[in-house]
Amino acid sequence: MNTQGLVNLAKTLVATEKGLLAIDESNPTCNKRFAKLGIPQTEEARRAYRELIVTTPGLGESISGVILYDETIRQRKTDGTPFVKVILDAGIIPGIKVDVGATGMAAHPGEKITEGLDGLRDRLADYARMGARFAKWRAVIAIEDDIPSRGCIEANVHALARYAALCQEAGLVPIVEPEVLMDGAHSLERCFAVTEQVLRAVFDQLYTQRVVLEWMILKPNMVLPGLTSATQAGVEETADATVRCLLQAVPAAVAGIAFLSGGQSAELASARLNAMNVTFRSRAPWALAFSFGRAIQQPALEIWSGHEANIEAAQQALQHRAKCNRAARRGEYDAAMEGGA
Predict the structure, then answer these.
(1) Active-site residue among 17, 177, 179, 196?
(2) 96 DSSP β-pair partners
(3) Which residue, among 279, 280, 286, 222, has the nearest Cα to 257 in the 3D structure?
(4) Does the annotation count 177 as an active-site position?
(5) What is the count of structural domains for the chain?
(6) Is the model's pLDDT at 233 over the cut of 60?
(7) How far apart, in Å, do the first and last CA atoms of the chain sit?
(8) Would you tell me the crossing angle of helices 43-54 and 311-330 to the nearest 10 degrees?
């Protein structure tokens, strides 16, 4: 294992004011989004959409790494060029989602456990040979009156830690994603408490499984009230709550923080990331970056809608959102930037 290489790679993924682009939706999830826009739910349509993304001009100016799905890492452009080569030629680092999804957890109604540890060592070796240099595993934690349970948290963080250890063994940087979901009517304070509890459990297990923190990136949720909460917090309030929570639970040794968007609108995700960097960038022990999926992709997907004639306009929208989030990393994002989107 090239230990210095992993340190450098982890730092590179969150350096130079860039962030990550997640295009790792499973085929069923991607198909659902296509269906809403009347796009054919076929492998070729998914391939064409991914080609639109990875060939967006100037993407590497704002994006340091792209998280791929198993189908996508094997795909090629229309001219036969592998997507991995296209990504590398753009100065972007390819990564791969390696969990196989969340399923209902036995004896825990309303809670899920993420699966995919079986055979993971061999899969990681295969992905590394294909060109992946980092990986991602997502755990989902729901908030309701009586959940999350201790059993759900402990099972999910144990899986995250075992995955991270296997990644580092394989020479890949693990992105550890414990997502406390936005769904529900919970308050900002309840999200703070649950997020802190989950993060403390994550790092306890990472320590137990001997994961080197300098070789990993944390991909957490922002601390937000539930989507149906009667009280919605302002941008600065959520930014403050998020970073205060991280400061209480995340060791300074972690290479970087790359927030998930988790269903936020594109503009709100950028504004909240910006507010964090305005206030905390100079004193947080880690880079406050982004690893957004829908918050970067969705405008482009809606413009494209499966029509080749819309590719250029869709790519411009994708590039715009990536630039907005790079500005947010500098604490220079402004809603006025959206005027010409």
Answers:
(1) 177
(2) 68, 135
(3) 286
(4) yes
(5) 1
(6) yes
(7) 44
(8) 50
